[in-house]
Amino acid sequence: MLLELKNIVKKYYIGTENELEILKNVSLSVRKGEFVAIVGPSGSGKSTFMNMIGALDKPTSGEYFLNGNPVHKMDDDELSEIRNREIGFVFQNFNLIPRSSALKNVALPMLYAGISKSKRMARAKDLLGLVGMGERAGHQPNELSGGQKQRVAIARALANDPAILLADEPTGALDSKTGDMIMELFLKINREEGKTIVLITHSEKLASQSGRVVAVSDGKITNQ
Amino acid sequence: MLLENLGLALESLRANKMRAMLTMLGIIIGISSVIAILSIGNSLTNGLSSEVGSLGASTVYVSLTAKTSSGSTADVLSVPRINDQDLLSEDLINQFAETYSENVKAISLNQNVADGTAREGKRYANMSIVGVNTGYGMANEVELVKGRFINDKDVVGVKSVGVISDKAAKNLYGNEDPLLKEAKVYTQKGVRSYTIVGVYKSKETPGASSMANEKDSSTSVYIPLSTASQETGTKGYSSFAAIAADQKVSLLGEKIDKFFGANYRNEKWEIKTINMESELESIIKMLGMASMAVGVIAGISLVVGGVGVMNIMLVSVTERTREIGARKALGAKRSHIRAQFVIESVILSLAGGVIGITLGVAIASLFAMFAKQTLSLDIRQIAMCVAFSMAIGIFFGYYPANKASKLDPIEALRYE
Ligand SMILES: Nc1ncnc2c1ncn2[C@@H]1O[C@H](COP(=O)(O)OP(=O)(O)OP(=O)(O)O)[C@@H](O)[C@H]1O
Ligand SMILES: [Mg+2]
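Above: inputs. Below: predicted complex with adenosine-5'-triphosphate.
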């Protein structure tokens, strides 16, 4: 298993009157090369779960192994390192670094990984080519359309050749046509590069294109 | 990594030019005043040393001062008049010079006679008549351009000869040779006539040259001391100067104090010696104190500037919370984020420092220009200012940077 979450519980306001249990004993395994879509109503805990998978958050209890690494036991800097090497994030609102060119954005995770400048730039260029943004390498985020930004963000997520690509509603801020094109890109990356992808979406159509749908409801997985 | 951070920092400063400028203001003011004061201090000290050197670093100036009757300040305001019998007699001064002949190279005596105007046809020159002995020329470093200075023969012979300034010579005779001409000086007491035996170079007094009536400014005509005393009827002196042999000024000062302390006894008056060496020391000390005061003010403005840097960095961190979240999601460690913001704050304060140094140097050169001093910059002081402004950046940038580095990535990403 590439990814193994066991009995994950996430609570907020622990020990107070309004203690909230957002994830209620969730378990999920993902094999290498899978394309998983997470669906569910708003507020059901999808993003919370995704953050857990992305090593941005630590569970209140439960275990999480990513590529054999015990993520639930890691400290801050170790989590940074695992995010850097094993995880590629794509956000709904892109989160590109402002005033930094597409090329530099894509190269950024490699900078944090300590890769030399020439290698960074070469790979960043290749990746921009892969997502069809080769022509826009020098452009800054505010000079790009939503769809273009998301392409750059996907290229950036692939920078350190991570074990898994995570996308939280990557088409949420795009019109349906652009969204379809972004979905196409994800499918292509999954198909051609064999990249494992976990993606949250509200669109049943997009979910149906994935290999496997995981439904979340009220902090629990209702079907796998 | 460092290079990337430098680029980032410059980028973010460029994006907020106005804000960066305002933030740097405190540091600019602080550093520029430090540099200006240090440089002005340097120039003044250098200027004073050379000026005092030319004034006769080996000269001890002796004068009579009123004895201060224990603690009453009123005496300082109402200086009593010196009566003739209180003056230092020429005999006493000569006696001193003989007793300590190995310490004294020369004694300079002078006596003011009167102010007047020399006339030659329609031409004129304002003059004050000053009786001098031979030592006067040496003590005051009178520089001759023509002829000779008053010598012992003139004094012994009570001759009616005079040495005038080049300025007066030009006013009176134009390009004609003034030597051996008779200068007629009209004073309130009547007309005096002196045979011109020498012309000296008048000293530049800073600021005076800009006066509109430069032509009318008065210069001295030096005549033999004996001729002068005949005129005034006095043979005593309220002041004189002694030139030390082998430049041992302090030693000569001590001898003068000793000799006149024992031989000049007076109820109201006592002698006071000044030598430029000790004067200079006290001037430099005062300058040092002034520098210190300005230093304190500059220090305060640097602290204020530093707090400004800290404040703006905190604002910057808040503004860029989402960016920090994104960076963390992409794998930035705490140290990466911290370095990014510390470097930004160092660049900010360093830029302030560099602008401040430039401004300070400009102020100092302006001062040097007006005060007719040579600008003297100390590269070590400038290096210190550069280092100091960097230190401010690190010190005041660390807290915001550390705060940024500790942000929770999820909360940062969700920040609106
Ligand atoms: N830091 C937090 N403190 C308290 N409650 C939180 C926090 N983060 C999330 N929650 C709560 O957890 C629940 C799940 O939120 P989450 O963002 O995971 O939902 P979601 O399934 O992604 O919804 P959506 O489809 O609208 O994005 C919500 O009720 C939310 O209010
Ligand atoms: Mg969500």
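The two ends of chain A are 15 Å apart (CA to CA).
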